[in-house]
Amino acid sequence: MGFFSDIKDKIFNRHTASTSAMPDTEPAVHETAPVTPQPAQAAPSAASPTGTAPSSKPTSATPESVASSPAPAHGDVDVAAILDQAVADSGQTLNWRTSIVDLMKAIGIDSSLSSRKALAEELEYKGDKDDSAAMNIWLHKQVLAKLAANGGTVPADLLD
Q: Do 80 and 153 share a domain, yes or no?
């Protein structure tokens, strides 16, 4: 698709990846649930169909609830936290809060002038694309505003 879609997907997918790591700590709950049916299965050994049915129901219900819980609403995406972590992960000194170039670098998207001009075209920039400073400032504000409009949570001071 377009550059903005790539930016949004990289940020929102980082959120999904970070929240999907959380359920890795929750399987202790799932381990506890199968432990309860196992003693029930061991006690009624003659009634193995009875022991099998309860253990299959909690097992099938539990993954469904886990699968539905990590699917984040876009309003739950803390853009600042995601980008701060992306900068930390990059190992570079980047200031995504003021620079569209650094924002793009942080999430691994080509930040070349030609890419930024293509992003400006996509977002319908009306100014002079040869004035890269003015275009970059406009792009930064537009990208953050569009992330917020698409359900991301962006600090208010960055949306001015």
A: yes
